[in-house]
Protein backbone atom coordinates (compact mmCIF):
# COMPACT_ATOMS: atom_id res chain seq x y z
CA UNK A 1 0.00 0.00 0.00
CA UNK A 2 2.74 2.44 0.99
CA UNK A 3 4.84 1.45 -2.04
CA UNK A 4 1.92 2.27 -4.35
CA UNK A 5 1.48 5.68 -2.77
CA UNK A 6 5.22 6.36 -2.97
CA UNK A 7 5.28 5.52 -6.70
CA UNK A 8 2.21 7.65 -7.27
CA UNK A 9 3.82 10.60 -5.49
CA UNK A 10 6.96 10.23 -7.64
CA UNK A 11 5.00 10.32 -10.91
CA UNK A 12 5.52 13.77 -12.51
CA UNK A 13 2.29 13.57 -14.48
CA UNK A 14 0.32 13.16 -11.27
CA UNK A 15 2.00 16.25 -9.77
CA UNK A 16 1.27 18.19 -12.96
CA UNK A 17 -2.41 17.32 -12.72
CA UNK A 18 -2.54 18.12 -8.99
CA UNK A 19 -0.88 21.50 -9.49
CA UNK A 20 -3.22 22.29 -12.37
CA UNK A 21 -6.22 21.54 -10.22
CA UNK A 22 -4.84 23.70 -7.42
CA UNK A 23 -4.26 26.64 -9.79
CA UNK A 24 -7.76 26.20 -11.22
CA UNK A 25 -9.31 26.16 -7.75
CA UNK A 26 -7.33 29.24 -6.72
CA UNK A 27 -8.43 31.10 -9.85
CA UNK A 28 -12.05 30.22 -9.19
CA UNK A 29 -11.72 31.35 -5.59
CA UNK A 30 -10.20 34.69 -6.60
CA UNK A 31 -12.86 35.12 -9.25
CA UNK A 32 -15.58 34.35 -6.75
CA UNK A 33 -14.14 36.92 -4.38
CA UNK A 34 -14.04 39.50 -7.17
CA UNK A 35 -17.71 38.96 -7.95
CA UNK A 36 -18.51 39.64 -4.30
CA UNK A 37 -16.87 43.08 -4.48
CA UNK A 38 -18.96 46.08 -5.48
CA UNK A 39 -16.83 49.12 -6.17
CA UNK A 40 -18.31 52.55 -5.53
CA UNK A 41 -15.87 55.13 -6.88
CA UNK A 42 -16.03 58.81 -7.80
CA UNK A 43 -17.06 58.30 -11.47
CA UNK A 44 -19.97 56.13 -10.33
CA UNK A 45 -21.11 58.70 -7.78
CA UNK A 46 -20.88 61.45 -10.40
CA UNK A 47 -22.98 59.35 -12.76
CA UNK A 48 -25.65 58.79 -10.10
CA UNK A 49 -25.68 62.52 -9.29
CA UNK A 50 -26.00 63.41 -12.98
CA UNK A 51 -28.95 61.03 -13.38
CA UNK A 52 -30.61 62.57 -10.31
CA UNK A 53 -30.07 66.11 -11.61
CA UNK A 54 -31.48 65.12 -14.99
CA UNK A 55 -34.72 64.03 -13.35
CA UNK A 56 -35.09 66.57 -10.54
CA UNK A 57 -33.15 69.58 -11.91
CA UNK A 58 -31.21 69.89 -8.61
CA UNK A 59 -28.33 68.23 -6.81
CA UNK A 60 -29.10 65.55 -4.19
CA UNK A 61 -28.49 66.26 -0.52
CA UNK A 62 -26.44 63.92 1.66
CA UNK A 63 -29.40 61.72 2.61
CA UNK A 64 -30.57 61.44 -0.99
CA UNK A 65 -27.05 60.64 -2.18
CA UNK A 66 -26.79 57.83 0.39
CA UNK A 67 -30.11 56.48 -0.90
CA UNK A 68 -28.86 56.64 -4.51
CA UNK A 69 -25.70 54.71 -3.66
CA UNK A 70 -27.59 52.14 -1.62
CA UNK A 71 -30.07 51.74 -4.47
CA UNK A 72 -27.22 51.12 -6.90
CA UNK A 73 -25.68 48.53 -4.55
CA UNK A 74 -29.01 46.75 -4.20
CA UNK A 75 -29.55 46.70 -7.97
CA UNK A 76 -25.99 45.48 -8.64
CA UNK A 77 -26.33 42.65 -6.13
CA UNK A 78 -29.65 41.53 -7.60
CA UNK A 79 -28.29 41.68 -11.17
CA UNK A 80 -25.24 39.61 -10.24
CA UNK A 81 -27.40 37.12 -8.36
CA UNK A 82 -29.72 36.81 -11.35
CA UNK A 83 -26.71 36.16 -13.60
CA UNK A 84 -25.32 33.59 -11.14
CA UNK A 85 -28.66 31.77 -11.17
CA UNK A 86 -28.80 31.92 -14.95
CA UNK A 87 -32.04 33.92 -14.94
CA UNK A 88 -30.82 35.96 -17.91
CA UNK A 89 -30.60 32.92 -20.18
CA UNK A 90 -33.39 32.63 -22.76
CA UNK A 91 -35.66 35.05 -20.87
CA UNK A 92 -37.86 36.70 -23.48
CA UNK A 93 -38.50 39.83 -21.39
CA UNK A 94 -34.81 40.42 -20.77
CA UNK A 95 -34.03 39.79 -24.44
CA UNK A 96 -36.57 42.42 -25.47
CA UNK A 97 -35.29 44.95 -22.93
CA UNK A 98 -31.72 44.45 -24.12
CA UNK A 99 -32.80 44.86 -27.74
CA UNK A 100 -34.71 48.03 -26.84
CA UNK A 101 -31.70 49.41 -25.01
CA UNK A 102 -29.51 48.94 -28.08
CA UNK A 103 -32.16 50.68 -30.20
CA UNK A 104 -32.18 53.59 -27.74
CA UNK A 105 -28.40 53.78 -27.98
CA UNK A 106 -28.62 53.78 -31.78
CA UNK A 107 -31.18 56.59 -31.62
CA UNK A 108 -28.99 58.65 -29.27
CA UNK A 109 -26.17 58.54 -31.80
CA UNK A 110 -28.34 60.15 -34.49
CA UNK A 111 -27.83 63.87 -34.98
CA UNK A 112 -31.07 65.81 -35.02
CA UNK A 113 -31.48 67.53 -38.37
CA UNK A 114 -32.66 71.14 -38.23
CA UNK A 115 -34.60 71.67 -41.46
CA UNK A 116 -34.70 74.91 -43.37
CA UNK A 117 -37.86 76.39 -44.87
CA UNK A 118 -37.21 74.89 -48.31
CA UNK A 119 -36.83 71.36 -46.91
CA UNK A 120 -40.02 71.76 -44.85
CA UNK A 121 -41.99 73.05 -47.82
CA UNK A 122 -40.82 70.12 -49.94
CA UNK A 123 -41.71 67.64 -47.18
CA UNK A 124 -45.14 69.28 -46.81
CA UNK A 125 -45.86 69.02 -50.52
CA UNK A 126 -44.73 65.38 -50.68
CA UNK A 127 -46.96 64.46 -47.73
CA UNK A 128 -49.86 66.82 -48.31
CA UNK A 129 -52.46 64.07 -47.97
CA UNK A 130 -51.74 63.66 -44.26
CA UNK A 131 -52.31 67.39 -43.64
CA UNK A 132 -55.44 67.93 -45.73
CA UNK A 133 -58.73 67.68 -43.84
CA UNK A 134 -60.97 64.97 -45.23
CA UNK A 135 -64.73 65.32 -45.45
CA UNK A 136 -66.25 64.80 -42.02
CA UNK A 137 -69.68 64.37 -40.45
CA UNK A 138 -71.22 65.49 -37.19
CA UNK A 139 -73.97 62.96 -36.53
CA UNK A 140 -76.31 61.38 -33.99
CA UNK A 141 -77.85 57.96 -33.78
CA UNK A 142 -80.27 55.77 -31.86
CA UNK A 143 -79.49 52.09 -31.52
CA UNK A 144 -82.18 49.49 -32.15
CA UNK A 145 -81.51 45.77 -32.36
CA UNK A 146 -84.55 45.03 -34.53
CA UNK A 147 -84.75 46.32 -38.11
CA UNK A 148 -88.53 46.60 -38.27
CA UNK A 149 -88.69 48.46 -34.98
CA UNK A 150 -85.88 50.73 -36.19
CA UNK A 151 -87.97 51.73 -39.23
CA UNK A 152 -90.91 52.64 -36.99
CA UNK A 153 -88.62 54.67 -34.75
CA UNK A 154 -87.17 56.50 -37.78
CA UNK A 155 -90.63 57.64 -38.83
CA UNK A 156 -91.45 58.72 -35.28
CA UNK A 157 -88.23 60.72 -34.88
CA UNK A 158 -88.82 62.54 -38.16
CA UNK A 159 -92.08 63.80 -36.68
CA UNK A 160 -90.64 64.75 -33.30
CA UNK A 161 -87.10 64.05 -32.09
CA UNK A 162 -87.13 66.14 -28.91
CA UNK A 163 -86.62 63.04 -26.78
CA UNK A 164 -84.27 61.22 -29.20
CA UNK A 165 -81.67 60.58 -26.45
CA UNK A 166 -84.22 58.60 -24.46
CA UNK A 167 -85.31 56.42 -27.36
CA UNK A 168 -83.99 53.07 -28.49
CA UNK A 169 -81.80 50.68 -26.54
CA UNK A 170 -78.70 51.35 -24.41
CA UNK A 171 -75.50 51.61 -26.44
CA UNK A 172 -71.94 51.09 -25.18
CA UNK A 173 -70.51 53.96 -27.26
CA UNK A 174 -71.52 57.61 -27.66
CA UNK A 175 -74.83 58.66 -29.15
CA UNK A 176 -73.35 61.67 -30.98
CA UNK A 177 -70.05 62.46 -32.73
CA UNK A 178 -68.47 65.64 -34.07
CA UNK A 179 -66.31 66.05 -37.19
CA UNK A 180 -65.71 62.37 -37.79
CA UNK A 181 -63.98 61.29 -41.00
CA UNK A 182 -65.00 58.19 -42.92
CA UNK A 183 -61.85 56.41 -41.74
CA UNK A 184 -62.58 57.24 -38.10
CA UNK A 185 -66.19 56.19 -38.50
CA UNK A 186 -65.24 52.90 -40.16
CA UNK A 187 -62.96 52.07 -37.23
CA UNK A 188 -65.85 52.72 -34.86
CA UNK A 189 -68.82 51.18 -36.66
CA UNK A 190 -67.34 49.23 -39.56
CA UNK A 191 -66.64 50.08 -43.18
CA UNK A 192 -70.14 49.19 -44.42
CA UNK A 193 -71.81 51.54 -41.93
CA UNK A 194 -69.35 54.37 -42.67
CA UNK A 195 -69.77 54.05 -46.45
CA UNK A 196 -73.57 54.05 -46.16
CA UNK A 197 -73.64 57.12 -43.91
CA UNK A 198 -71.24 59.16 -46.04
CA UNK A 199 -73.25 58.26 -49.15
CA UNK A 200 -76.50 59.37 -47.50
CA UNK A 201 -77.92 62.57 -48.99
CA UNK A 202 -81.32 62.68 -47.26
CA UNK A 203 -82.21 65.21 -44.57
CA UNK A 204 -83.52 64.18 -41.16
CA UNK A 205 -83.45 60.78 -39.55
CA UNK A 206 -82.46 58.00 -41.98
CA UNK A 207 -81.93 54.28 -41.88
CA UNK A 208 -81.93 51.86 -40.42
CA UNK A 209 -78.23 51.37 -41.15
CA UNK A 210 -76.59 48.17 -39.97
CA UNK A 211 -73.30 48.09 -38.06
CA UNK A 212 -71.42 45.33 -36.30
CA UNK A 213 -73.57 46.06 -33.23
CA UNK A 214 -77.00 46.02 -34.83
CA UNK A 215 -79.33 48.59 -36.44
CA UNK A 216 -79.14 52.36 -36.12
CA UNK A 217 -81.40 55.25 -36.95
CA UNK A 218 -79.11 58.16 -37.85
CA UNK A 219 -79.26 61.88 -38.56
CA UNK A 220 -76.45 64.01 -39.98
CA UNK A 221 -76.29 67.41 -38.28
CA UNK A 222 -73.40 68.89 -40.27
CA UNK A 223 -71.46 67.77 -43.31
CA UNK A 224 -67.97 69.31 -43.15
CA UNK A 225 -66.33 69.70 -46.54
CA UNK A 226 -62.76 68.60 -47.14
CA UNK A 227 -60.13 71.33 -46.90
CA UNK A 228 -56.64 71.68 -48.31
CA UNK A 229 -53.98 72.32 -45.71
CA UNK A 230 -52.13 75.64 -45.63
CA UNK A 231 -48.40 75.42 -44.95
CA UNK A 232 -47.69 78.47 -42.75
CA UNK A 233 -50.19 77.84 -39.91
CA UNK A 234 -48.91 74.29 -39.38
CA UNK A 235 -45.19 74.78 -39.91
CA UNK A 236 -44.40 73.58 -36.36
CA UNK A 237 -46.28 70.32 -36.92
CA UNK A 238 -44.56 69.83 -40.28
CA UNK A 239 -41.16 70.40 -38.62
CA UNK A 240 -41.90 67.76 -35.97
CA UNK A 241 -43.04 65.30 -38.64
CA UNK A 242 -39.96 66.07 -40.74
CA UNK A 243 -37.56 65.37 -37.86
CA UNK A 244 -39.46 62.20 -36.95
CA UNK A 245 -39.24 60.95 -40.55
CA UNK A 246 -35.52 61.74 -40.74
CA UNK A 247 -34.92 60.00 -37.42
CA UNK A 248 -36.75 56.87 -38.60
CA UNK A 249 -34.77 56.87 -41.84
CA UNK A 250 -31.48 57.21 -39.93
CA UNK A 251 -32.47 54.36 -37.61
CA UNK A 252 -33.26 52.20 -40.64
CA UNK A 253 -29.83 52.97 -42.11
CA UNK A 254 -28.13 52.19 -38.78
CA UNK A 255 -29.99 48.88 -38.58
CA UNK A 256 -28.94 47.92 -42.11
CA UNK A 257 -25.31 48.64 -41.24
CA UNK A 258 -25.60 46.59 -38.04
CA UNK A 259 -27.40 43.75 -39.82
CA UNK A 260 -24.63 43.59 -42.44
CA UNK A 261 -22.11 42.75 -39.72
CA UNK A 262 -23.84 39.45 -38.97
CA UNK A 263 -24.21 36.32 -41.05
CA UNK A 264 -27.29 34.17 -40.66
CA UNK A 265 -26.96 30.46 -41.26
CA UNK A 266 -30.15 28.48 -41.68
CA UNK A 267 -29.50 25.05 -40.24
CA UNK A 268 -31.47 22.05 -41.50
CA UNK A 269 -34.41 21.06 -39.35
CA UNK A 270 -34.34 17.47 -38.18
CA UNK A 271 -36.98 15.38 -39.85
CA UNK A 272 -37.84 18.08 -42.42
CA UNK A 273 -37.26 15.74 -45.36
CA UNK A 274 -38.91 12.70 -43.83
How would you portray this structure in words?
The protein folds into three domains: 2-35; 92-119 and 233-274, no CATH class; 133-224, Chitinase A, domain 3, CATH 3.10.50. It is an alpha+beta fold and 274 residues long. The protein contains ten helices and four strands. The protein is elongated. A hairpin with a 4-residue loop joins β3 and β4 (215-224).
CATH fold-level label of the largest domain:
Chitinase A, domain 3
Tertiary shape: elongated
Quickly give the CATH architecture of the largest domain. Answer: Roll
| Global mean pLDDT | 76
Q: SSE order, as H and E?
A: HHHHHHEHEHHEEH
Low confidence ranges: 12-19, 28-33
**Major sheet, described briefly?**
4 strands, antiparallel
Question: Briefly, what is this?
Answer:
By secondary structure, the chain is an alpha+beta fold. It has helices spanning 2-10, 12-35, 42-56, 62-84, 92-108, 117-126, 147-159, 182-189, 191-199, 235-260, and strands spanning 136-144, 176-181, 205-210, 215-224.
Amino acid sequence: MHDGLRKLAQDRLVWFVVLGLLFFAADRLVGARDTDIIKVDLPLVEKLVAQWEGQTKRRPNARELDALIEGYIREEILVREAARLGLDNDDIIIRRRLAQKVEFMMADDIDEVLPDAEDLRRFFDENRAQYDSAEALSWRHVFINDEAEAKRLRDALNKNDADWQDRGQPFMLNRSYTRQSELELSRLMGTQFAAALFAEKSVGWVGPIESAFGWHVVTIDTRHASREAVFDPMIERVARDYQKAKRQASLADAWRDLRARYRVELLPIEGAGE
